[in-house]
Structure formats: C-alpha cells, structure tokens
Amino acid sequence: MNSLLPTNANAATSPDVPKAPRRARVRLFAIGGFTVIVLAGAVVAGAVPRLRQEQTVNDAAVAATKRRPRVTVALAQASPPENEHVLPGNALPLLEAGMFPRATGYIKTRLVDIGDRVKPGQLLAVIEAPDIDDELAQAQANLQQAMANLEKAKADEVYAAGVEQRYAKLVKTNTVAQQEFDDAVKATGVARAAVVAMQATIKVNEAAVQKYTDLQSFEKIIAPFQGVITARNIDPGDLVIANSSSRELFHIMRRDTLRVFVNVPQLLTTGIEVGQQAIVYQRDDPSKQFAGKVTRTADALEPNTRTLLTEVQVANPDNALRPGMYLQVKFILRRTTPSIRIPAAAVIVHSGPSKVGVLDSQQTVHYRVVQLGRDYGDQIEVLTGLQAGDTVIVHPGDDIPAGTVVEPVPVSK
C-alpha cells in the first residue's frame, strides 16, 4: 500500500496533467465571447431600425407642425336666372256634379252605369211619379176653366157697358130714373173688375201648370255636360225622395281637362302669375310630361300654412291622367333678385347667425355672416354675404380659427 503512494505523487507532479483543463477554459471563454458578440449584434440590429423609425416619426411630426392645414374648398357660383321648382298637386276634374232627385217617385229606368261616357242632355234615368202627372193635369184643367170664365166675364163686361150707355141716353130724357142709371154704371164696374180678377186667376193657374211641368221634367235625369259616370247608386224600383241630399243618384266628371291644385310656399308666390306655363307629370313616370297653364290663384295666402292655392289646367284628351291623382307640377320661375349657391356643408350654423368660411388671395381664413335662402339639399342659396367666385371652405369644423393660413384642396365632384 505504501508502494502505491509514490506513484500517485508522481502523477500529480507530472507536467502534462494541467493542459486539458486550460483548453476547456479557453474553449468556454471563446464560446462565451462569441455568444456575447452575437447578442450584442442582435441588440444593435434590432435597435437601429427602431431608432430610424423614431427619427422618421419625429421628422414627420416636425414637418407636420410646419405644414399648413389642408381644407376642402369650393367656388361660390351665381344662381341661374331661371329656376325650376317642383311641387305636389292634387288633380280634380274640370267639371263635377252630383245628381240628386228633385221629384219623389220610383226609378222606372236606368240607362247608364259607372264608366259610361255621356253627352250633354243625354237621358240617364227616368223616375215614375204619377202624383206629379195628376197634379199637372189638374193645374191644366184649372187653367182652362179660368180661361173660360174670363171669356164669360168679358161678355158680362160688354153687356154691362151697353146697358150703361143706353141708360145714359134715357136718363137725359127722364125715360129712366137716375137710380137705374147709377146701378148700370156700378154693374159695368163690377163686370170690369171680374175680368181683371179672372185674368189674375189665369196667371195663377199658368204658374201652377209651369210648376208641375217643371216637376214632371225632373222625372228625367239628364246629363248636364259631357263626362263620365263615376258613381251610380240607384237601380230600377228604388224609391227616391225629392230634395233629399242623403242619396246621390249619379256622379259625373268631365276629365278631358283637369284642374291641378298646388299649394305654393310663400317664398315662391311672387313668381306665380296667371297665364304662365307649368309642366305636370306623375312621380312614378317623370318621362311622360303634360303641358299646363296657371289659370287662377287664390290671390291670398292661407294663414295656417302660408301657402298660395294655385290652379293649373292641363289638357287630358287621352285620359292619361285621372281625377284624384297625386301629381308633380314643375314651375319655371324667373329670379327677381340675384343669389349665390354654395355647398350646404359650407354653412356653419350655431346659436348665432349663419356663417361661411372664406379664403382670401393669401389663403387666409375669414368668416362672413350670410343670409340663407332656399335649401336644395346638397346646395343652399345665399342671398347676402358672398359674391360669385368666392372660395368657401367645405366642412370647416370648429378647429380653424380666423386668420389661419391653409392649403386649399378642391372638392371632388
């Protein structure tokens, strides 16, 4: 066992033993250094783009602070001398009548129905009223009796006048008494009065005959004008009562010419004149238009709506339009005062008066107070405050103070 100790001692003091640990440490140091270099390179590679990006952002921010604000602009344009305005209207027939009974009786015959076209004087229906016929016959008989009585009264007058003349001669010779002559004079006066009374009776009877003749004529329902039957409420055998408005026999309309009534707003009333042209069309078919003319106006505004009732007549020979239709009426009005049009988005509306942002020749922002007119949706009319050719700011917002120099960008069409 002791012999082994020198051997281990010799191994410890051998010069080749320390070489392996030193190589390992050198290799470890080399790997560590390489790793540090790689990590440092990665850090540098990641930091450089980020620094460059931050520098780019900083440069852009500095440039943005120095750049003028960009605003969308448009030019104010003069309104055309003539302007079109389309308003809704209600179509009514040129003539319209409801036929009601003027004689009491039963419907004997009905000759027309709804949709039938009739001419003036055409027979529509017949009412059977025998009581009216009987009263007419009685009135005619009374008239004939009165005329016969008149002839008798005239004869009595002639006889009484003859007696008076004869007694006038005899009283002078005292052949008859004065009393008899006076009685003859009175008899003549009575006969003359009887003639006058019978003449008056004849006039009364003639009036009665005319009355029942008129009532008898009401037994025939006649079309008052050319048109179309739009309602029929009777059948043969129905009882109708004279002067009753509860039951309409027929309704007739003349529609070869229509009357279109339009409520014109106060702003446009000064441009409406009797005789001016207008275009009428259906909203669902605007390509088919009809020429019309303003025939009359109410000449006063309705106080509740502040509108002027206007009538436009339009020819309708082909019945393309129907009474009761909701139509569009286009008026072409000439302007009495010039105005300017700008985009509606350029108007600033707050609690105060309306304003518009305007750029001068140096692209500096100024705000002007304007008076607005008619609103056309995407555009609006300006009456005062602007001139044609002014550059206005569209969508100015609230962050552009007056005096700011901006960069204008024309509004895209």
List the helices and strands and how they pair.
Elements: H1 4-12, H2 19-66, E1 70-75, E2 77-78, E3 82-99, E4 105-110, E5 117-118, E6 123-128, H3 130-172, H4 178-217, E7 220-222, E8 227-232, E9 239-240, E10 250-265, E11 277-282, E12 285-302, E13 307-315, E14 326-334, E15 340-343, E16 347-348, E17 355-359, E18 365-369, E19 371-375, E20 379-384, E21 391-394, E22 407-410
Parallel strand pairs: 1-22
Antiparallel strand pairs: 1-21, 2-15, 3-10, 3-14, 4-6, 4-9, 5-8, 6-7, 8-10, 10-13, 11-12, 11-14, 12-13, 15-20, 16-17, 17-18, 17-21, 19-20
Helix pairs in contact: 3-4
Structure in words:
The chain folds into four domains: 20-64; 71-79 and 338-410, Beta Barrel (conserved putative lor/sdh protein from methanococcus maripaludis s2 fold); 99-222, Helix Hairpins; 253-334, Beta Barrel (Elongation Factor Tu (Ef-tu), domain 3), CATH 2.40.30. 17% of the residues are buried. It is built from four helices and 22 strands. The strands form four sheets. Strands 1, 16, 17, 18, 21 and 22 form a six-stranded mixed sheet that branches. It has a six-stranded antiparallel β-barrel with strand order 3-10-13-12-11-14. Strands 2-15-20-19 form a four-stranded antiparallel sheet, with no helix packed on it. The chain is elongated, with a radius of gyration of 56 Å. Helix 3 runs antiparallel to helix 4. The protein has 413 residues and is α+β, with helices and mostly antiparallel strands.
